[in-house]
Amino acid sequence: AEAKRKAERKAKREAEKRRAKEEAGEDDDDDDKLTESELAQLRGYKKTADGRTTSYFTREQSEEEKRLLGDIAPQRLHPQSTSPTPPPSNASPSVRVTPPMRKATSSVWNQGGATWEEKDTTEWCTDALKTHLKSASAKSTTGSTTLLATVTKIDSFSGDASVAIAGGKKRYIFDFHVSIKYEIRDDDTDEVLASGTMRCPDITSASHDELEVELSSWDKKPSDTETATKCRTQLTKQVRKAVQGFVQDFNHHY
User: Fold this and answer.
1) pTM for the whole structure
2) CA triplet 220, 221, 224: central angle to 5 degrees?
3) CA distance 124 to 254
4) pLDDT digits (tens, 9 = 90+) for 18-64
């Protein structure tokens, strides 16, 4: 009986303590509860000085750090302007290709030229090479007869060209395959004495100095083969010179 009374008194005291704490706004579990700041940190968020909610790991710069760094906002890149380049003084006026407004350079993002960058120039090179080839002509005199050989037509044309910039250097790349028609006339009477086809199978940036020219059989066979062949040989040399003229213009234009 005595033990029962002691237990009742103890329970009563505990109840009174709980009521007193509740009235005082206290809680036995206060030490185990987290504050709002602690809860936010556990969720991975926090409030910045200006009231923004951001990642807990975001580091705010001090005013001194901001002053030292300055303006780090992205800036638009502007290409450097270049002055027009005058045409070469030794080029023939009859085959002059329109001079460039400015030389091709690497992009704004690649000013050092360290990254491979390539520009397609096929259209310009096609027009320029055809212009030079059509201008090729040659004369040959034997005794009192003078023959004139001219290119009359670009029979077939294929290939491509580009300018590449890499390692700070500019490379001119082209690979064309051309077939041309020609005629040999009497320079006095303008009579067509012979005609034929020439092929330039490899007009390339690697072998243009030693251009291969293939000659097919005569389309119109001349009565004086020896004289006509001599004139055709001179025309072949002029075709090679025309290709070299194209290469010079290509290098100048870009």
Assistant:
1) 0.59
2) 135
3) 10
4) 666 666 555 555 555 556 665 555 556 666 777 676 666 677 777 88
